[in-house]
Amino acid sequence: MTSTLYHATGSPNSRRVRMFIAEKGLQVPMVPVDLGNKEQFSDAYKAINPRSMVPTLVLTDGTSVAEVPAIWRYLEEAYPEQPLLGRTATEKALVAMWERRAELDGFAAVMEAVRNAVPGLAGRALAGPHFYEQIPELAERSRLRLVNFYADLNQRLLTTPFVAGEHFSVADITALVTLDFGKAALKMAIGEDQTALQAWYENVAARPSALA
Amino acid sequence: MTSTLYHATGSPNSRRVRMFIAEKGLQVPMVPVDLGNKEQFSDAYKAINPRSMVPTLVLTDGTSVAEVPAIWRYLEEAYPEQPLLGRTATEKALVAMWERRAELDGFAAVMEAVRNAVPGLAGRALAGPHFYEQIPELAERSRLRLVNFYADLNQRLLTTPFVAGEHFSVADITALVTLDFGKAALKMAIGEDQTALQAWYENVAARPSALA
Asked: Which of A70, B20, B59, B177 has its CA 20 to 30 A from that of B169?
């Protein structure tokens, strides 16, 4: 294992990959990228990822793999033990489905709410190489989406121990990172009546990988 | 093969799956869902997909698989010939990366531009079970994103014959569906100077699967 992960401590997308690596018990060298000093826009980092986003996994042959699900896919193929993307064809599909819902309904909504509201991210309403102005109305809508996401996820967890079914998977990673970032950045809390969500959260947050 | 695809003719997401099926040469029974008459909100369809979205693949055991990448993953695992998600671990990662970029930068931008602007979609600014009001400013920003996507894709195609590299893949499917829907719904055209994008488009649009 000599692939290298470029990441940032406070980046929720980086955490999605660090948790995955921790769950698999892999030893991956990690290089921090200083987002506070805009290191992602440096020539050195743009040579690794022209889109100036973290995380990026650089393989031993120099290939850069960006985008969280793509990095997960590489690591799962290369190190199939402790599968986190599903075991059978059906399970792989259901993990992909539930992870995507957690991302589109939850994770993307938190990011959108933060990027369209935080003064320091003016002009950076979307991650990537292009600059877009913030839309305050969008930040408001994102909060509403997040309220719906928490309610939907609570419903789901009334029927299964983990987001995608019987096994811990990347769907749980994305959901946990969403809730933690929603709490830290937006003060979004689990509702008092959302007991299934609360029980799942306590269970998943207690895994050693959650510290990654 | 007795899985069944619930889809809609005019739905770009449905087309992403139909093209995939056509490329693989699979025979999948298809059941149309009449979006014009809001059949996706009927009790019968909600029993198949509680989120009222198309497409959905219903497996022989009754399992519903929704979300385009999840349906692709199931079909690729079950029918590995004519791989469209990559061959090696590295290729699978790069296909996932490039397809995701085409989706987030291109496909999602077209959908967002349409959903936040078309009068008939008032209150339906996001697909799914929840209702959100349109944000006209967002529709404008989406058009700008699409302009950037076309330019970025043209740059990429100066270096590779297909979006993810040497082979046709789901990244090409998402990009083609994006361009076709962008042209039909938003009158977005390939720029005259975007010769690599134009050449790729003509090549990919000529595949029999593009008629799916």
From this structure: B59
Instruction: Looking at chain A, list the stretches that DSSP marks H as alpha helix, in order from N- to C-terminal side.
Output: 12-24, 43-48, 68-78, 89-101, 108-115, 136-157, 170-186, 195-205
Task: Quote the radius of gyration of chain B (alpha carbons, Å).
Answer: 17
Nearest 5°: phi and psi at A101?
-60, -40
For the CA atoms of B96, B177, A145, A134, the dihedral, rounded to the nearest 10 degrees, stands at 90
Residue ranges per domain, chain B? 4-78, 89-211
Burial class (CB in 10 A: 0-12, 13-18, 19+), A26: middle
Selection from A112, A103, A105 nearest residue A174 by Cα: A103
Residues B96-143 have pLDDT tens digits of 999 999 999 999 999 999 999 999 999 999 998 999 999 999 999 999
Whole-model pTM?
0.97
CA distances from A137 to A116, A134, A189, B137, B138 (A): 8, 9, 21, 9, 9
Residues from chain A that touch B100, judged by Cβ atoms under 8 A, are 67, 69-70
Domain over A89-211 is classified CATH 1.20.1050.10: yes
pLDDT digits (tens, 9 = 90+) for B48-85: 999 999 999 999 999 999 999 999 999 999 999 999 99
Q: Give the CATH class of A4-78.
A: alpha beta
Q: Which residue of B has its CA nearest to A49?
A: B97
Instruction: Give, in order, the Cα–Cα distances in Å from B39 to each of A110, A211, B170.
Output: 31, 45, 28
Mutate to test the interface with B, among A56, A65, A142, A169 (most CBs of B within 10 A): A65
